[in-house]
Amino acid sequence: MEEEEAGREKMVxxxxxxxxxxxxxxxxxxxxxxxGSTDGVQPGVGDGGSSGGTERRRHSSNVDPQxxxxxxxxxxxxxxxxxxxxxxxxxxxxxxxxxxxxxxxTYRDSGKKLGNAADTGVKSMYLLITKxxxxxxAMKPVHSLAAEIKDIKKQLDELEGLCK
Length: 164
Fold this sequence. Notes:
This protein is 71% helix and 0% strand.
């Protein structure tokens, strides 16, 4: 048996070394104990027996019960590990999907907010331009007043120059 560790979480995999050889050895031991002959010749094999002579007897009792119990136990462990892995995979995929949905919602919301901010910025800019034009219109009389003040100042300077 081997155990492997992958990533952050422990993942166990079971591998029976030489499984086929173990099954064959079990069958050979069973055949030898069932034969009962001391020369190792099986009945019906090579002795000109009446049932075809070359066929081996195959029964379900030829398999070692301990080997079958081990196989069943290991199969259950593998099935449990696969079930656990599939559950963990499902949970991980659900978590990833939830994160993806959250990211897309955040992206959507930020896009809406950016659009609203851009609209607000454009509206504010037009409002500023309008206010500047209004101030410019209100300042037109100031320019003419400034010209009149310059003219009055010039006349006062001339009058003062005459009075000296």
